[in-house]
Amino acid sequence: MLCRCSTALDDFDKEVIDGLGVNGAGILARAISRISIWCETWIVESPVKLGAGAIRALSIPVRMIQSGLLQSYILLVVIGLIGVLGYYLYTAHHVIR
Fold first, then answer.
1. Which residues of 56-72 are buried (b: 16+ CB within 10 A; e: fewer)?
2. Whole-angstrom distance, CA of residue 97 vs CA of residue 89
3. What is the pTM of this model?
4. Which H or E element spans position 43?
5. For 82-92, b where at least 16 C-beta lie within 10 A, e where not — what string?
6. Alpha helix (H) residue ranges in the chain
7. CA 56 – CA 63 distance, rounded (Å)
8. Domain segments of the chain: what residues?
């Protein structure tokens, strides 16, 4: 009787616990993993790669004018400041009138 009970419990362990429980959990985990990989690839990475490519493409003209000389960078900053100050002085002049 003890031997039959042991065999029945062994069969229950193999079929129900290992078969449905462990193998089913493994199948479910692999399915969720595939869905997660698909979402990561197409929903998250694609827009990021598209944005990075657009920024890289738009940076080509900027990289072409970079010379590495500090004097040219300072000249561009001064020209930009003159432009900003000129704009605000022009706007203030029309506001006062």
1. eeeeeeeeeeeeeeeee
2. 12
3. 0.47
4. none
5. eeeeeeeeeee
6. 2-12, 23-39, 46-58, 60-65, 70-96
7. 10
8. 1-66, 67-97
- Residue 90's identity, in one-letter code, is Y
Give the separation between CA 58 and CA 64, rounded to whole angstroms. 11
For the stretch 27-64, pLDDT in tens is 899 999 999 999 998 998 999 999 999 999 988 888 88
Backbone angles phi, psi at 59, to 5 degrees: -85, -10
For residue 31, the model assigns a pLDDT of 94
User: Tokens representing 62?
Assistant: 């900027």
Whose structure tokens read 């042991």?
Answer: 6
Calpha distance 48→54 (Å, rounded): 10
Backbone φ and ψ for 66, nearest 5 degrees, come out as -75, 130
